[in-house]
Design a protein that fits this description.
Blueprint lengths: L10 H12 L8 E5 L5 H7 L4 E4 L23 E7 L6 H8 L2 E10 L30 H12 L4 E2 L25 H15 L6 E5 L5 H14 L5 E4 L7 H7 L8 E2 L2 H6 L6 E4 L7 H10 L3 E6 L7 H15 L4 E5 L10 H10 L18 E4 L2 H6 L1 H14 L5 H9 L3 E7 L5 E11 L3 H8 L9 H10 L3 H4 L1 E10 L8 H15 L4 E7 L2 H9 L3 E9 L6 E8 L2 H23 L7 H7 L11 H10 L5 H17 L9 H11 L4 H8 L4 H18 L2
Parallel strand pairs: 1-4, 1-5, 2-3, 3-4, 6-10, 6-11, 7-8, 7-9, 9-10, 15-16
Antiparallel strand pairs: 12-13, 13-14, 14-15, 16-18, 17-18
Helix pairs in contact: 1-2, 4-11, 5-6, 6-7, 9-10, 19-21, 21-24, 22-23, 22-26, 23-24, 23-26, 24-25, 24-26, 25-26
Length: 699
């Protein structure tokens, strides 16, 4: 009898023997085991080794389970074995998250549908993720087809009852370093770097970057404990959630001695505390403006973050915040932890998930800068892209590199959703140098319009038309057809060379040919992005009142008309935007970045200018009128000035100060901080100087 035959129809005992055979007897590696039918969750849980946990949306009677939507709560926990049942639906982010809870020597068991049928079957997990009226049966199976290929082609994956195709690798010799509290030399170096940062010159942040399982949180905890023992002042800890800092606090708290104090990041910004050192764990989970706020208030600070995590935030941290560090604190120090501490280097489970979910995808490594004329743009068929491993990694790597949050589930939806379109720019070697994902929206039935406009109903998807209707009162947007740019990214080497504009032009031309009424987008507003989309022919028509939790930015809505009806909608939306924005800036948008305000204004029609305003503003600039007397005239002149400008006020401190006072009515102490002066009298002097420049610019 061969190895496979001995397990067929063997039940719990046979599966238990099988798992023992594929498990690493030395307890260094983790492995993935696939259980296709007829094996069920009850059999799997009876066969695995405790401590174990079941992750399932349809557990057997009497079996405790963690729902897939709550899989991230397992982070920080440790289990010998984890069983994930995906027969009732594949949650890609959950699959990646629960792997981090499997300890060395353990197995992650996935209970799947029949592998040959899985890509073509209707996945119930898609029911709440596809745009109305799409059903799971309407979705393509490209992501699942690729996932099955990855499982079958990986020799370290055990597909029951067959044996794995290769023996476990021999672990490379690790280096523990000289610090007995640390498991690797990487971890020891990280501890030393944090301690050095606490005792050295201020404004030299330490940044620890690592994949999961490298011991970065423990390194922060060891450093915190030693700083407290040395009496280096209060050590404060923060993270996106207290749970995310538990490993750090546990490592810092020994022998009953009090450890560092945890405080939420928003409280640390709102109420700055004295601190010998502030430690920020899982920093990529915090919005970049919040990280900037911590950096500005705490001269001695260390950040730690996961780069290739399932959350899809690490690259955004690198793109946005590390650039801010370069500007604000150019002497910051980076330390990378590459040696695993929770499992051996070359762990089969980690390697499989990195490949299958593209957690380590990067933009193409370009041998040379391609000439603009060598770049072609067009639509990328999802089926072909999913089978071109190199191109898919380049495509997804660009999106991860450029966007604050891009998760594995976003890749799945892009490949399988019926309303999604994939677009790319390629150089003459075929490398993808720009990537975009679009979603087709709108053309909603007339019978639904009244309820959507009244806020009584919200359909899944269709973000652009429903937001324009529900928040802007533009009911006609519901009937029109829109193509929304959901994601767009350009290779770092080609940014600023027109590649993104060429790709946008291709998408606009195709949308017009497909009979769409508008090309639109919704994104976290920044001055640079507003200017980019305006150069692509889009106009701002709406701005969200609340900040997005991930990016800490307000959502900007922009449209480019492609038909007569689209032009009418855009003109109406622009007129209402111009009418309402002055009031909104003084109310719900009073905290909006003045640079964003300036970038929103170009092309808006604020009516006829009043020539008398120039005289009033001149009197203010020369000290003959007060800011309250001249306020209405400055506001009108400033609106007209910004509407006629290019929207680039990033380096114009005077214009931003005028926006903050005369459009947003910010308090005097905040204006003083922005102007770098002390007291109301000095702020008024700065406003007078800025007003003089405003008058000169318009003459």
């Amino acid at each position: 009898m061969d190895r496979q035959e001995q397990y067929i129809d063997g039940g719990v005992d046979a599966l238990r023997r099988y798992l023992a055979g594929v498990r690493d007897p030395a307890g260094r590696y983790r492995r993935l085991v696939v259980l296709p039918p007829p094996t069920d969750a009850a059999t799997a849980m009876a066969a695995v080794t405790a401590p174990a946990v079941l992750v399932s949306d349809a557990p057997p009677d009497g079996e405790d389970a963690v729902p897939l939507r709550r899989a991230a709560t397992l982070l920080g926990s440790e289990y010998r074995d984890v069983v994930v049942d995906v027969r009732a639906g594949l949650d890609v982010d959950a699959l990646a998250a629960v792997a981090g809870a499997v300890i060395a020597g353990g197995v992650m068991v996935i209970i799947t549908p029949a592998l040959e049928d899985w890509p073509g079957s209707a996945d119930p997990a898609l029911a709440g993720r596809l745009s109305w009226p799409a059903e799971p049966a309407d979705a393509a199976g490209h992501f699942r087809d690729r996932l099955v290929r990855c499982l079958r082609e990986d020799p370290q994956v055990a597909i029951y009852p067959a044996a794995p195709g290769a023996a476990l690798p021999r672990p490379a010799a690790g280096t523990a370093g000289d610090d007995p509290a640390c498991l690797t030399s990487d971890q020891a170096a990280a501890v030393a770097a944090v301690i050095a940062g606490a005792g050295g010159a201020p404004h030299r942040p330490c940044v620890l970057i690592a994949d999961r399982g490298r011991g970065k949180s423990t390194a922060l905890g060891i450093a915190a404990r030693r700083l407290l023992e040395a009496g280096s002042g209060p050590v404060l800890v923060t993270a996106p959630r207290r749970r995310a800092a538990e490993a750090l606090i546990a490592a810092a708290t020994v022998d009953g001695c009090p450890g560092p104090r945890y405080l939420p990041p928003d409280q640390l910004i709102r109420e700055p505390r004295p601190a010998g050192m502030l430690l920020v764990d899982e920093a990529a989970g915090l919005p970049a403006p919040m990280l900037d706020g911590l950096l500005a208030r705490y001269p001695r600070i260390a950040f730690a973050t996961t780069v290739h995590g399932y959350e899809g935030t690490g690259a955004g941290f690198r793109v946005r915040f590390l650039a801010s560090l370069d500007r604000r604190t150019p002497q910051w120090q980076e330390h990378r932890l590459t040696q695993p501490v929770r499992w051996a280097d070359g762990d089969p489970l980690e390697a499989l998930l990195f490949r299958a979910l593209l957690l380590d995808a990067e933009p193409a490594d370009l041998a040379a800068m391609p000439a603009t004329g060598q770049i072609t743009t067009g639509r990328e068929p999802a089926a072909a892209l999913a089978r071109d491993e190199s191109a898919l990694r380049e495509f997804y790597g660009l999106l991860v590199d450029a966007h604050y949050q891009t998760r594995p589930d976003d890749l799945r939806r892009s490949l399988e959703a019926p309303d999604a379109g994939l677009w790319a720019a390629r150089d003459d070697d075929g490398h993808i140098v720009a990537a975009a994902v679009t979603l087709d929206e709108g053309e909603l039935p007339q019978a639904l319009h009244t309820d959507i406009l009244a806020g009584r109903r919200r359909l899944q998807g269709h973000l652009l038309p429903q937001s324009l209707a529900g928040h802007g009162g533009l009911g006609q947007a519901l009937a029109l057809r829109h193509r929304r740019v959901h994601r767009i990214a350009v290779h770092p080497a080609l940014r600023g060379h027109g590649t993104g504009q060429r790709l946008m032009a291709t998408m606009a031309r195709a949308a017009r040919e497909d009979g769409l009424d508008t090309l639109g987008t919704v994104f976290g507003a920044t001055p640079a992005l507003l200017r980019f989309y305006r150069r692509c022919g889009l106009a701002a028509v709406q701005l969200g009142h609340r900040r997005d939790a991930a990016s800490a930015s307000h959502a900007a809505f922009m449209l480019r008309p492609l038909s007569g009806d689209g032009a009418t909608l855009t003109e109406t939306a622009r007129a209402r935007f111009a009418r309402d924005i002055p009031w909104r800036l003084a109310g719900p948008l009073t905290a909006l970045d003045p640079g964003v305000v300036a970038a929103l204004m170009p092309g808006l029609d604020f009516g006829a200018a009043d020539d008398a305003d120039g005289t009033t503003i001149a009197a203010f600039s020369h000290g003959h009128r007060g800011p309250d007397d001249a306020g209405p005239a400055v506001q009108r002149k400033l609106l007209h000035h910004l509407a006629a400008s290019s929207g680039n006020a990033d380096d114009d401190d005077g214009a931003q100060l005028l926006v903050a006072r005369f459009l947003q009515h910010r308090p005097w102490d905040e204006l003083a901080a922005r102007a770098g002066v002390s007291g109301r009298r000095a702020v008024i002097g700065a406003l007078r100087a800025a007003a003089a420049v405003l008058i000169a610019a318009d003459t």
